[in-house]
Amino acid sequence: MARLIKKHYEQRLMLAMLVYMVALIAAGPLLRAVASLPLKAMLAVAPVLPMLYVIALMWRRISDSDELEQRTHLVALGVATALVSALSMGGGFLVAGGVLHLGGDVLIWVFPVLMMGYGIAYRQVANRYGMGVLCTDEGSPWLPWYFAVTAVVMAAFGLDAWWKHNAWNALAFAATTALFVTMAVWVRMRQSRARRLERED
């Protein structure tokens, strides 16, 4: 099997995330219109399929990495898993004690929170080992636009949740929107700075 270079990895990852967002947006109205339980179940889990592809992409990318990068990914994933486990346990006890009242849809946030924790932890561990997290030469120039479009989609979901008086989901989508906006600005600044340094050299 050919080695998956970073540029192709990013392109496939972004395509999978776009498919995920389209499936997520389309599933809502279709679920309300369909009466058949098996079809409703298939539509409900449709957004999971591109996420499984993302997990497979990540596994292939990590397996193609050298030992140092594999160690970095492993430490970051361990930190993210510990964070999500602690949050899930704390939230579970709060719900069991009647302090919080959360529906089953809160489970949708487990994977995104895990990925966000993984991304932050990976950056910190990579900096510790002196590794660059973003290589502009290999990275996709439209990566900031991907983050920006994702932020717009998350903001739309947040407004929909607000109109439905679901304050918890509205707050979660607002925080996710802010995160993706921050990522778009940060990546754009990194890419612009790298190009400026290349011109000066």
Automatic annotation (TrEMBL):
Keyword Transmembrane attributed: yes
UniProt keyword annotations, A-Z: Membrane, Transmembrane, Transmembrane helix
Domain of life: Bacteria
UniProt keyword Cytoplasm present: no
Transmembrane segments: 12-35, 41-62, 74-100, 106-122, 143-162, 168-187
Record's protein name: Transmembrane protein
Organism: Rhodanobacter geophilus
Upper lineage: Bacteria, Pseudomonadati, Pseudomonadota, Gammaproteobacteria, Lysobacterales
